[in-house]
Amino acid sequence: MSTEKCFANGSATPGPVPKGHIRLYSMRFCPFAQRTRLVLNAKGITYDTVNIHLKDKPDWFLEKNPLGLVPTLETPAGEVIYESPITCEYLDEVYPEKKLLPSSPFAKAQQKMMLEHFSKVTPYFYKIPMGRRNGEDVSGLEAELKEKLAKLNEDLANKKTKFFGGDSITMIDYMMWPWFERLETFELQHCLGSTPELKKWTARMLEDPAVKATMYSTDTYKAFYKSYVDGKPDYDYGL
Predict the structure, then answer these.
(1) Which residues are catalytic?
(2) Where is the GST N-terminal domain (predicted)?
(3) Dihedral of CA 24/221/117/165: which sign?
């Protein structure tokens, strides 16, 4: 179902969630929803996807999630969970095979703290391209982003591990990945600067099966974001 066209206002309510499945309400190009898709794929969870037209949301979706945000999960029992970190932690608890969060409370807290730090990085991926389009000087913002990425590089170098939680991929890697996947789309590749460990991490992430299963080409992302900036987002681009 993950390649189906999005549901807009006036569309029929999808049928009940099949037993043994979980449903993801998503949007194909949303980095926050991609976090949840990465976790679903990494853990081998059986799920179906209902893509939502975020500019013209169905009333039935707003009844499930009054905030109208993706990702949103729904279980066969009608339980609804939303917000990307919450959906991902929920999946890790309910489907204990291949745990992505550490079992140690301190290590788990460390990942959550790192995610909190990373939440201060993501706005740059929107502010800088928007500033450029408006003819603003974004050199200061770019310098700040370079500084934040250099700090991530330093963290990884100090850990001496392949990934941010050790030598295998854990939750924090998937939480950060969608924005690195879009660096080229937002023309921010140069902000990686001299971050050798971060560049190695990026190359390793690109080899991960869950990453491969959820990513789109840069050309596809660029086409979607152009339609978004033009005020007519083509959520079904490429279908």
Answers:
(1) 30
(2) 20-99
(3) positive
Task: Tell me which H or E stretch contains 215.
Answer: none
Q: Is 77 exposed, middle or buried (0-12, 13-18, 19+ CB in 10 A)?
A: exposed
The predicted pLDDT at position 193 comes to: 86
**Alpha-carbon span 129 to 56, nearest angstrom:** 25
Q: For strand 22-26 and strand 47-51, is the pairing parallel, antiparallel, or unpaired?
A: parallel
**Averaged pLDDT in 10-residue chunks for the chain of 239 residues:** 79 93 97 98 96 96 96 97 98 95 96 96 94 94 96 94 96 98 95 93 98 96 93 93
Residue 22, both tokens:
């979980």
Burial of 22 (0-12, 13-18, 19+ CB in 10 A): buried
Contacts of 58 (CB under 8 A, 6+ apart): 7, 8, 9, 10, 11, 13, 52
Domains in the chain, please, with CATH? 22-99+219-229 (3.40.30.10), 105-207 (1.20.1050.10)
Show Cβ contacts of residue 105 under 8 Å, excluding neighbours closer than 6 positions.
none
Rg of the chain over all Cα atoms, to the nearest angstrom: 18
Q: Give the Å distances, CA to CA, from 71 to 96, 101, 110, 151, 173.
A: 20, 19, 24, 29, 18
